[in-house]
Amino acid sequence: MSTPHVGAKRPELQELPQIKERMSFLYLEHAVINRLDSAITVTDDRGTVHVPAAALGVILLGPGTKITHRAMELIGDAGASVLWVGERGVRYYAHGRPLTHSSRLLVAQAALVSNVRSRAAVARHMYAMRFPGEDVSHMSLQQLRGREGARVRAAYRSISKKTGVAWHGREYDPDNFEGGSVVNKALSAAHACLYGVCHSVIVAIGCSPGLGFVHSGHERSFVYDIADLYKAEVTIPIAFDVASMYDEKDDIGRITRRAVRDAINTGKILSRAARDIRQLLMDEVEEDAAWDVVELWDDKAGMMKSGVSYGGISGGGAPNDNASSDDASSDDTFSGDAVFLNGYGEIL
């Protein structure tokens, strides 16, 4: 029997950098990802590099990548998100686990999106964030969509004139990346990177990618909502700049990804996205606690303590302080004020 590998100690949740403090993303393709202590190792035909997992926000795994169980163990412990994507990152297939264990933002998101008035208010807030200095409170959602469409078209015309890159409209075929013009390929690659980063932030702070306010009906609706806040600032200018300097013979996807990565780091998009999402969903939100408290929901009393035996009380409205240890054991309950879980779902 082989001797188990002794790696670095598993970090406590409070020891990990928050998503807003991390680097944006790392895109990998045609490589093998493994683990050595607290770093993931990336090996391809050029050699091996070591990457500290806790410093990354999201890892984009492209075609030809192989990842070991030990690497996923480290990435999961570090709270980094993993997205499996298609060639050049323009197709999304799956994602990994969140950094937080709290559901407070998710509950707030579900409550807001389930009510017509509150959903419209959040959507209007999102549009207002794109029009700084303008009062949009009197506009309907239909008017705001029209205003946003006009703003995006104006942005395309302006950047086209500035860079000298001809613009004939957005053309995107997810099954034929090479079939588009240089500027459209750059836009596809840039948007895919931004979607990946926004997705990782949304998942990391405990929200649902599928519960959108402006977009709806897609598993990444909220991702598109948040990404739209930064496109005019980040991805559209970068795509036209790339198209003005490179042509079909160049690797547009790789060049664009590097430019987007630098812009996201410089513009502190991870930090801004985390702050903007919290502001959209809750007026004030405390940082997530370093431990997990599981509570029980009650339709009359609200939140109740978990890990307490409620058996034997008429209506179940109060804990059974007189319950014997045998009763508690037979009911699979635990005495105490709360249940604390570690990252493996085990009771501490």
What attributes does this structure have?
four-stranded mixed sheet; 11 strands; 348 residues; Ribosomal Protein L15, Chain: K, domain 2; alpha/beta; 10 helices; disordered C terminus; 15% strand; Four Helix Bundle (Hemerythrin (Met), subunit A)
What does this structure look like?
The protein is α/β, with parallel strands linked by helices and 348 residues long. It has 10 helices and 11 strands. The chain has a 4-stranded mixed sheet. The two termini are 30 Å apart. Strand 9 and strand 10 (302-305) form a beta hairpin. The chain has 3 domains: 13-95, CRISPR-associated endonuclease Cas1, N-terminal domain (Ribosomal Protein L15, Chain: K, domain 2); 104-281, Four Helix Bundle (Hemerythrin (Met), subunit A) (Up-down Bundle); 293-340, no CATH class.
Please describe the topology of this protein:
Layout: E1 23-28, E2 32-36, E3 39-44, E4 47-52, E5 56-61, E6 66-67, H1 69-78, E7 81-85, E8 92-95, H2 104-113, H3 116-130, H4 141-163, H5 182-204, H6 221-227, H7 235-245, H8 252-266, H9 269-281, E9 293-298, E10 302-305, H10 325-330, E11 339-340
Parallel strand pairs: 1-5, 2-6, 5-7
Antiparallel strand pairs: 2-3, 3-4, 7-8, 9-10, 9-11
Helix pairs in contact: 3-4, 4-7, 5-6, 5-7, 5-8, 5-9, 7-8
Distance between the termini: 30 Å
Tally of DSSP β-strands = 11
- Give the class-level CATH name of the largest domain: Mainly Alpha
Poorly predicted tracts of residues: 11-17, 287-292, 321-348
Series of H and E elements: EEEEEEHEEHHHHHHHHEEHE
Overall spatial form: flat
In the sheet with the most strands, the strands line up as 1-5-7-8
Beta strand %: 5-15%
Instruction: Quickly give the structural class.
Output: alpha/beta
- Count structural domains: 3
SS summary, helix count? 10
Radius of gyration in whole Å, from Cα? 24 Å
Rounded mean pLDDT is 77
**Corresponding CATH superfamily of the largest domain:** CRISPR-associated endonuclease Cas1, C-terminal domain
The CATH architecture designation of the largest domain is Up-down Bundle
Output the CATH topology of the largest domain. Four Helix Bundle (Hemerythrin (Met), subunit A)
Q: For the report, how would you describe the main beta sheet?
A: 4 strands, mixed
Helical residues, percent: 25-40%
